[in-house]
Amino acid sequence: MMTGKWDMGEKPDQDAQVRGFEMTKGLLLPGGDTHYISDKNGKVNTTLPPSYYQDLNRTSPYSESGQEVTQFPPNAYSTEYYTDSAIALLQNRDISRPFALNVAHIAPHTPWQAPPEVSAKYIETYSKGWDVLRQERFERLKASGILPVDAKLPSRPEGLRAWDSLTPTEQSVEAKRMVVYAAMIEMLDNSVGRLLNYLKTSGEYENTVILVYSDNGAESVAAALAYEPSRSATIKNFNTLEAGDFDPNKLANIGDASWYFGPNKEWAMLSNTPFNKHKVTLFDGGFHVPAFIHYPQAKVSGIKYDCMHSILDFMPTILDMADTSYPTTWNDKPLSPLPGVSMAGLFQGNFSCNADRWLTLEFEGMKAVRHAGWALSQARFDNTLHLFNLEQDPYERNDLAAQRPDKLAELFDHYQQYAEENQVVEVSGRWYPPLNTVSTATANTDAGVYGGVASNGIPLWLKAVNAKQSDILDVGGFVHIAKEHVGNPGEFFVHIKYTQSDDMPPVYFALTDQGLHKQSTAEGLPTFQAGTLPRSLPIPIYQGTLVDIPGTFEILIGYRVDDTEVLGSDPIILTVE
Question: What angle do CA 481, 485, 486 make, to 5 degrees?
Fold first, then answer.
């Protein structure tokens, strides 16, 4: 049984109902949406763009046992709705059989939203600011025995603001940002308690293993505002702190259904104390997370246990406690062996673990390896690999990649073995940010231009990390076509203005079907034909070192339909010295 965030595909053949779950209720198909699920009439609220629903022929992102859900309780809030759904699933199950229930809350994922009456109590706490609170939390971790008593709090990472550098108005606004997050955590905590109380009243609590965990470290940005411009048509109607909207009248109701915002890197630093970085990185701040395992029949409790475990260990643990095994075939096809190790022995007092265990993973082009106190870590949109000795540097502040190439190569060799065994498709670490777009089209709500320059810092001796992208500049982008233009005849343009120096006239280039076209003026630069326009088109522009052609490049990307409708970008600026 399952309720909450699915994020494993939205098409009918990707629903949880056909992926192993017998019963689902309140299943959110995409990775997130507004926490205020419905209005006062029970109609769905959403921040997803119109194209999402058009492409899937849906009007709601929610599913129940494979069927679309279009009517909700009035003014439903995600955390309470998922808990209500979880209890309903338990009430309607076959009580003669054991159960497995996955409650995948989206709180406290952005957008940060919670009733103002819940958040108000936290204003005094967060008015202290992230620097004071970070020190206080670090001291509590030491006092609780989680960290050594002689541990030292790392300095604030470079580029992050000191709380005292903010104006009083900025401090007031930032404190209000975080009280909403605290309210979301309180509501989540209460909802977990409500579910446990149901298990107790139904007589199931004493025979239920409960696992509570976070799927990643703290966020550092409101993802939809930073990476998903296709949502701008819906999010533009919300109040956002990122827009610098400090209207006191609006701030009085911060966190209600009219708001859409998230954290910043300073608050992420606090939430991840004392770890390095944040979500969507494979530093410890990205995936070293808290987890709780509770079993009322356990013979031990309150024991400090210092072994490395992963979510990969949950399935072996569940199978072990259920006295069953993982199948070797499915639909007459062989299955890969189940990764992970069982933790069931902990409940019997067995605290031994494999100190030589390797933990290897990849996510969106990033790579991570943990072994015997060493860490290979990587950030998103950056092909650089980092190496840390966690026994001497537990908070990943001293990168040893240059000093210990032997150890970095050892860990990376293990990653390559992992990638081969798991059929990993390597992707570049580059990221093309959304460019400012303008259009004379009438309804380009889901069109966009992305582009940029990636410079890869992988050492030459390690260029096998991504051979095609190593030690070069990669200039390019892609155009996301408006839905109403897909399938129509059209043309793309990549226009480049090159200025070698201030005392020389610029030269203009255009990519065409025949290659690179050059001329002395900007007027009449040619395009290249696309035939019928696809949903999106990647546009490689340049790969190389550029060391022999100093100057400034201004690159424009876009497309045209019928010579009248144009989507273009702000320039990508590339300066070579």
Answer: 70
